[in-house]
């Protein structure tokens, strides 16, 4: 089944797309600088970790504001493809996180952090990277939207199932946190877009930059909170993150091709499976485990944008 072309976007949406492409290109450098700042000046950000959930709420509100009814129509038009993407995302990445934690014999805090990254919904930059890869943007948006909306029901029990052997997991409290920091801000953003779309459209080019800066601040706080452990653990965590992300991209692409969704849809599946909402993972790890458990999410924030940009560049040079 070949992919359907997304509906044409308005001039305002096109301006937002251009801004998003620029933001996602600059984002890896921005996050690297933010991480370096947290590592070099950890005392300057002492006690700032409590602000992470609120900052994540800002990012998710921006995501909600960019949504339109067209995104939800895409789910209804291709339920099979969206369902496949959703199942692949919440099976492949959690399973890989658990397997990699065992394979590398990670300490409990880091193992729980890697698993939590795998149990998070799709990354907020996956749609833009799919566009750069000349993939099926409509499918990408649909899968990312649904994976985010169902996160309160899926992420906590998966984390309990897979990470419970390493650390105690309060799944009920985690559900509440995801509702407050993800679902409610997304719905609020969607309501604002529907109620004041004409005015919101003017701000669309600014929103990707606001999201990028906010995630960078989150990374600074997370790195500062675990600066003492990073020097001894960063190498091992980096290996885990590269394996997790790389295998997720490959298996996501393979799932799309095995299902015969077509090449553009396969590219979308690669990014929807392999790119995670690492900001949410960092927030949950800090609140429910420890700053050290948030280290995999902080490194994932940097790496999956670098690998996503490189993979998109490679895909864009291949025939569709």
UniProtKB/TrEMBL annotation:
One of its GO terms (cellular component) is membrane. The keyword Aminoacyl-tRNA synthetase does not apply. The chain crosses the membrane at residues 20-39, 51-68, 80-104, 110-132, 139-166, 178-196, 208-230, 236-256. Its main location: membrane. It comes from the Bacteria. InterPro entries: BilAc:Na_symport/Acr3, Bilac:Na_transpt, Na+/solute_symporter_sf. Gene3D superfamilies: 1.20.1530.20. It is found in: Membrane. It is a multi-pass membrane protein. Keywords: Membrane, Transmembrane, Transmembrane helix. This is Transporter. It comes from Streptomyces fumanus. The lineage of its organism: Bacteria, Bacillati, Actinomycetota, Actinomycetes, Kitasatosporales.
């Amino acid at each position: 089944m070949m992919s359907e072309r997304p509906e044409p976007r308005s001039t305002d949406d096109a301006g937002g797309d251009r801004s998003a492409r620029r933001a996602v290109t600059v984002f890896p450098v921005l996050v690297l600088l933010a991480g370096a700042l947290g590592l070099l000046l950890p005392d300057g950000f002492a006690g700032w970790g409590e602000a992470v959930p609120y900052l994540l709420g800002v990012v998710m509100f921006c995501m909600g504001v960019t949504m339109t009814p067209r995104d939800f129509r895409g789910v209804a038009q291709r339920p099979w493809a969206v369902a496949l993407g959703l199942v692949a995302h919440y099976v492949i990445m959690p399973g890989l996180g658990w397997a990699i934690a065992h394979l590398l014999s990670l300490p409990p805090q880091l193992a729980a952090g890697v698993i939590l990254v795998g149990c998070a919904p799709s990354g907020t930059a996956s749609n833009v990277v799919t566009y750069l890869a000349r993939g099926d943007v409509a499918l990408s948006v649909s899968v990312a939207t649904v994976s985010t909306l169902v996160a309160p029901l899926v992420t906590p029990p998966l984390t309990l199932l897979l990470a419970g052997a390493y650390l105690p997991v309060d799944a009920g409290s985690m559900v509440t946190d995801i509702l407050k920091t993800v679902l409610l801000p997304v719905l609020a953003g969607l309501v604002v877009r529907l109620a004041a779309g004409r005015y919101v459209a003017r701000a669309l080019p600014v929103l990707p930059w606001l999201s990028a800066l906010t995630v960078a601040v989150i990374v600074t706080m997370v790195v500062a909170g675990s600066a003492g452990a990073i020097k001894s653990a960063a190498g091992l965590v980096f290996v885990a993150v590269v394996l997790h992300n790389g295998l997720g991209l490959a298996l996501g692409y393979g799932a799309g091709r095995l299902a015969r969704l077509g090449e553009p849809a396969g590219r979308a599946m690669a990014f929807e499976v392999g790119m995670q909402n690492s900001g949410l993972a960092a927030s949950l790890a800090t609140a429910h485990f420890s700053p050290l458990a948030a280290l995999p999410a902080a490194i994932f924030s940097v790496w999956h944008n670098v690998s996503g940009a490189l993979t998109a560049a490679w895909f864009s040079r291949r025939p569709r």
